[in-house]
Please model this.
Amino acid sequence: DTGVSQNPRHKITKRGQNVTFRCDPISEHNRLYWYRQTLGQGPEFLTYFQNEAQLEKSRLLSDRFSAERPKGSFSTLEIQRTEQGDSAMYLCASSQRTGIREKLFFGSGTQLSVL
Amino acid sequence: DQQVKQNSPSLSVQEGRISILNCDYTNSMFDYFLWYKKYPAEGPTFLISISSIKDKNEDGRFTVFLNKSAKHLSLHIVPSQPGDSAVYFCAASYGDGDMRFGAGTRLTVKP
Model:
């Protein structure tokens, strides 16, 4: 399978705990994105990387959120001191930027439930 | 600020008929538009796109129309099939900017 892979698929945690998600993009893609989706809404941009550099962060990404992409391959998204409002589907996407047009390839997401 | 809007949360059509999904945007800088389809428990998958230099793009049963003056685009599916039942997201971007998504429209195609 050469698609975008996300782990875990589901995560249930208690409020105040830290959680970490992993994303493995399509191997030849140099861009990696994190989105968050809540019920009844479309994906909301959180942050993206070009290779290992984090180029943009949304204001939705509070200080409790941190993302890394060491060596420009897989990426991790960590949420510290989780809150119930963090409950959402966290989607990772990758792309191989060609010119100024790109389409994103999404993983199946990690569903986070904060109790 | 919701720059991409899909005002119909759901749409139901009969198999074989045309499905028309609509999308409006407010940012006149957007110059690239996409439609994604999402099945339950899966991530969105790319369906079709259109650049702002065009007003129509067709791919098999799927056609996207862009009306720049009205800041409106639509996705036509003809003929609709039960396997098309999914949530459809409209998305837009410009330059190197991030992609903005609408809230989605749930399409149900009845046999």
The interface with chain A takes residues 4, 6, 9, 32, 34, 36, 41-46, 49, 51, 89, 91, 95-96, 98-104 of chain B (CB under 8 Å). The mean pLDDT of chain B is 94. Chain B has no helices and eleven strands. The two ends of chain B are 38 Å apart (CA to CA).
